């Protein structure tokens, strides 16, 4: 398990954020897109609660948490200083702890999670929407539903579905992710879904070129 990021510096994070936004703007321009349509989400799985203050001072406003307990702890400390998304594997038994705090859940990928979302919808933030995680590459063991199951999931969803999320196979070549990002965009277009959560520190430029509306950035923001 990776260690928590520590000793974060607001000035460095702000500079990294500005660099990211310039690269996103250039990628969006190449694709004929509005760069304002792309959100930078700070992935904070390995950021200690105390260090979120540096993100706040650097101008970060959207963060994504991976664990229910960390989300609860950080929301208790920072509240409305950030907009909170949940980006980790969604365990059905943790749904009730997550839904009061977040704007989006990026990782809905099982019928049991859909049932728990229905069961606890009265606890949910009024604006809560969900993203369906799709395993577009068909990679064995990868989280996400099969593309062919999406229509069924949309019918079952107890909350508004904002869009889709995917994690492509690991590769040292960012361009290797392109066909999977394009496939997710095509699937979203087919079903009239607008939000695409795809791209991380390694391949976010390619993701923006292929239609990402949310890129999930960790190390690129902090180092």
Secondary structure layout plus pairing:
Layout lengths: L9 H21 L8 E5 L8 H7 L3 E4 L2 H11 L4 E4 L8 H4 L5 E5 L2 H9 L9 E5 L16 H7 L4 E5 L12 H13 L4 E3 L6 H6 L4 E4 L1 H4 L1
Parallel strand pairs: 1-2, 1-8, 2-3, 3-4, 4-5, 5-6, 6-7
Overview of this protein structure:
The protein has 223 residues and is α/β, with parallel strands linked by helices. It has a single domain, classed as Alanine racemase (TIM Barrel, Alpha-Beta Barrel), CATH 3.20.20.10. Helices cover 37% and strands 16% of the residues. The chain has helices at 10-30, 52-58, 68-78, 95-98, 111-119, 150-156, 178-190, 204-209, 219-222, and strands at 39-43, 62-65, 83-86, 104-108, 129-133, 161-165, 195-197, 214-217. Strand 3, helix 4 and strand 4 form a beta-alpha-beta unit. It is globular and about 45 Å long.
Helical amount = 25-40%
Taking pLDDT < 50 over at least 5 consecutive residues as the criterion, the unreliable ranges are: none
SSE pattern: HEHEHEHEHEHEHEHEH
How many H/I helical runs? 9
Number of beta strands? 8
Corresponding CATH superfamily: Alanine racemase
CATH first level: Alpha Beta
End-to-end separation: 18 Å
Cα-atom Rg, whole angstroms? 17 Å
Number of domains: 1
Mean model confidence by pLDDT: 95
Q: Look at the helices and sheets and give the structural class.
A: alpha/beta
User: Main sheet?
Assistant: 8 strands, parallel
Structural shape: globular
CATH architecture: Alpha-Beta Barrel
Cross-sheet strand order for the largest sheet: 7-6-5-4-3-2-1-8
């Amino acid at each position: 398990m990776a260690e928590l990021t520590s000793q974060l510096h607001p000035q460095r994070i702000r500079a990294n954020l500005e660099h990211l936004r310039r690269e996103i703007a250039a990628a969006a321009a190449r694709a004929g897109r509005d760069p304002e349509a792309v959100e930078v989400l700070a992935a904070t799985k390995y950021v200690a609660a105390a260090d979120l203050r540096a993100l706040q001072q650097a101008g970060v406003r959207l963060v994504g948490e991976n664990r229910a307990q960390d989300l609860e702890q950080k929301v208790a400390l920072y509240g409305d200083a950030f907009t909170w998304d949940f980006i980790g594997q969604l365990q059905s038994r943790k749904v009730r702890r997550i839904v009061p705090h977040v704007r989006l859940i990026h990782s809905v990928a099982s019928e049991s999670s859909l049932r728990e979302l229905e069961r606890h919808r009265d606890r949910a933030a009024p604006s809560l929407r969900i993203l369906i995680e799709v395993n577009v590459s068909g990679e064995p063991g990868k989280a996400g539903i099969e593309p062919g199951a999406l229509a069924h999931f949309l019918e079952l969803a107890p909350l508004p579905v904002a869009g889709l999320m995917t994690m492509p196979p690991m590769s040292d070549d960012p361009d290797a992710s392109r066909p999977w990002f394009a496939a997710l965009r095509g699937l979203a277009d087919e079903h009239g879904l607008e939000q695409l959560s795809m791209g991380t520190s390694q391949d976010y430029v390619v993701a923006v070129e292929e239609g990402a509306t949310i890129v999930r950035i960790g190390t690129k923001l902090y180092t």
